[in-house]
Amino acid sequence: MLLSVAVSIDGYLDDASPQRLLLSNPEDFDRVDALRADSDAILVGARTLRRDDPRLLVASPQRRTARLAAGRPEHPVKVTVTAGGDVDPGLRFLHSGGGKLVYTTTAAAAELGARLAGLAEVVDLGPEVGFGALLDDLGARGVRRLMVEGGGHLHTGFLAAGLADELLLAVAPILVGHTDAPRFLHPADYPGGPGRRMVLADVTRIGDIAVLRYLPRGGAPQALAAGRPGTETSQ
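^ thats the sequence. predicted structure below, dont judge the formating
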């Protein structure tokens, strides 16, 4: 499972203005598109959907054609997660691409399922949203490569639960400095504590962007599979 994120030098995902801050350059956007094309599913949190309203599609016609030629859907499955069920049926996420999954809690599942009927499959994960249970369900559906594109609460949750195989961190030469802007990570009890060092597997320069590839668990990436430990968290 891959975490993919673009951040400012001071660790922000965006600034505090109404307009989205573009951290990546065109070449880096193409790199991300290639990652999407290589994935079985793309996951973003409900906060990210509400803030950015992304479509989460593979942009390149050549990559879409290659997926179809390989017997895969044109676009990866699109996935979001929400504990409270706050997903607007008008979001572009729900009206483009192929399959959509919305993971939520028992308390929100019935109402959310009715609201999104015909747009997405709503999956009840129980009293709380457990990231381990979410990965197990995706694995049972045939998802072997999951790309997580944000936001900060999801990145924090997966890293804190020790579930991330890879972290691709694109660092833009920008300083945001807005204390109320969304951050990449939030306070959490991360595995190993503050002294634990991730494995830096690669560094790539893409124009003025530095892409750092880390292995949080220190080994080769693994496919999603049933039987993962489930750490409970909420989004």
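The first strand starts at residue 2 and ends at 8.
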